[in-house]
Amino acid sequence: MNDVTSPHGVVVAVANQKGGVGKSTTTVNLAAALVAKGERVLVVDTDPQSNATSGLGIDRRTVEHSIYDVFMGERPLDEVIAPTTTKDLFVVPSSIDLAAVEIELVARYSRERLLANAVAHMEEKFDTVFIDCPPSLGLITVNALTAADEVLIPIQAEYYALEGLTQLLRSIQAIQTNLNPQLKIEGAVITMYDRRTTLAAEVTAQVRDHFGDTAYTTVIPRVVRLAEAPSFGEPIESFDPKSIGAKAYRSLADEFRRRHGRA
Ligand SMILES: Nc1ncnc2c1ncn2[C@@H]1O[C@H](COP(=O)(O)OP(=O)(O)OP(=O)(O)O)[C@@H](O)[C@H]1O
Ligand SMILES: [Mg+2]
What we know:
By secondary structure, the chain is of the alpha/beta class. The protein has one domain (10-259): P-loop containing nucleotide triphosphate hydrolases (Rossmann fold), CATH 3.40.50.300. The protein is built from eleven helices and seven strands. The chain has a seven-stranded mixed β-sheet, sandwiched between helices. A hairpin with a 5-residue loop joins β3 (82-83) and β4. α1 packs across α11 (244-259). It starts with 9 loop residues before the first strand and ends with a helix. Adenosine-5'-triphosphate is lined by residues 19-25, 47, 49, 51, 135, 191-192, 220, 222-223, 226-227, 230.
């Protein structure tokens, strides 16, 4: 948690090597909810699946320059930033080429710090920079955790939710020791919560037990509108601002801002 008001923005990696837990959904919708509160936000998509890119209305087939060019040292991050349909919300798109980047960078000097170098001055231009990570603990996620001030961990409220968390926390520790001593765990947020099941409540209790105050009070419910919004290329905040999902992400944004001394 960060309770010091900073004139600069903060870089937050949204990570969990487990697939389909709500990383991209949380990145896109928390970003848009923060914009609705008056922030200027950048989403850096580092997943070759490009879900955050398409969720923000960018057709991945028309992307000319992407985070791939940044990793390859062919373009500075500034030149790859694209506007979205939401004012004050910007995206660095991803592309499928990124799938090969781990191999292409195998012999590159300081290859864990490429993203950190690329985002270095973004904190002066944006209040919050989110890095949406792919579902692995490979070189791309290492780059994201090295570039970030904080890591936000979405956890799906389901039976195997806590499986793999030990690995993630161990990786975070390894990054803190070797690459980025400043890295903090910003929070853990429960996603896809179904209040009809007792299992969801049990998982939530376990996460609270495990993370204490780091666990967000806000829980993101499982609601169809959140799954529909990306196919329209819009965050829930503009797609259906009155929906339960939009309210949940606004509540998460309020908590996020309180944690960062902004509200
Ligand atoms: N709160 C929710 N309610 C309903 N559906 C959701 C919710 N959150 C996410 N989803 C859906 O669940 C799927 C996985 O979500 P998402 O893509 O955000 O996860 P992810 O962790 O980014 O996945 P990956 O690991 O593949 O990158 C998507 O189809 C998404 O639309
Ligand atoms: Mg994703």
